[in-house]
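Thread amino acids onto this structure.
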């Protein structure tokens, strides 16, 4: 069973408290407490979404990406899993959490850019929460329809998902870029590298998800149209699909 998802919700919080309680830590008390509160809210939201999705069971279901990799590598799967997934993500999480380190090693007064960082972080948490809730409700509704022998809805195309094909990924990225603004404001803009690498990884995950969606016969046509008319990440207005003329023309 893959257990990397709940691991993500714990490590940043542990690193945060390690940095905050270190004997050599120096920081602005209010900035530290604000970042601490935001990080706990982010972690609780992500943990809640994971356990709700897994029907409140710990590691009961394996992620389809792990299943695909195990089929691809066969008996050699253990090393691909250990090195490519688990070991790499230890470094990845530390890199993403570098702004938490900066916040607790630089003592400067609060400024306008702290407000910007707070706004971006809160927007990320809120967008990810509603996107995940809408996805959960959609999957639950389809599960009930399938159990009754009724046709399922092929595509989630309302709420935030009307404006973006992956609003949950967009919200998650906002969170990490928001933390980066805290560090940039303290003169350590190089820590944006964590958020940048995370965005690149989510771009790859997005590609995998969309390739999988396009292979499902019951939704391929709807999804192809969805790709042509809907923004990938950033919520935006619908566009007309290429090759389809407006009814009024």
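Threaded sequence (249 positions):
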């Amino acid at each position: 069973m893959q257990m990397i998802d709940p691991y993500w919700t714990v490590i940043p919080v542990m690193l945060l408290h390690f940095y905050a309680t270190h004997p050599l830590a120096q920081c602005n008390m209010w900035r530290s407490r604000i970042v601490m509160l935001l990080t706990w809210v982010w972690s609780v939201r992500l943990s809640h979404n994971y356990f709700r999705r897994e029907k409140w069971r710990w590691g009961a279901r394996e992620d389809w990406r792990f299943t695909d990799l195990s089929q691809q590598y066969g008996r050699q799967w253990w090393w691909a899993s250990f090195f490519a997934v688990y070991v790499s993500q230890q470094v990845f999480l530390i890199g993403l959490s570098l702004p938490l380190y900066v916040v607790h090693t630089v003592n400067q007064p609060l400024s306008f850019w702290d407000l910007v960082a707070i706004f971006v972080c809160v927007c990320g948490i809120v967008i990810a929460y509603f996107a995940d809730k809408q996805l959960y409700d959609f999957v639950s509704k389809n599960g009930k329809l399938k159990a009754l022998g009724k046709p399922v809805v092929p595509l989630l195309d309302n709420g935030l998902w009307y404006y973006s094909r992956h609003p949950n990924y967009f919200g998650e990225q906002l969170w990490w870029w928001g933390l980066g603004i805290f560090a940039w404001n303290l003169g350590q803009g190089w820590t944006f590298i964590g958020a940048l690498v995370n965005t690149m990884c989510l771009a790859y995950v997005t590609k995998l998800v969309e390739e999988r969606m396009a292979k499902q016969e019951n939704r391929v046509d709807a999804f192809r149209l969805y790709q042509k008319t809907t923004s990938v990440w950033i919520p935006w207005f619908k566009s007309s699909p290429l090759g389809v003329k407006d009814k009024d023309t």
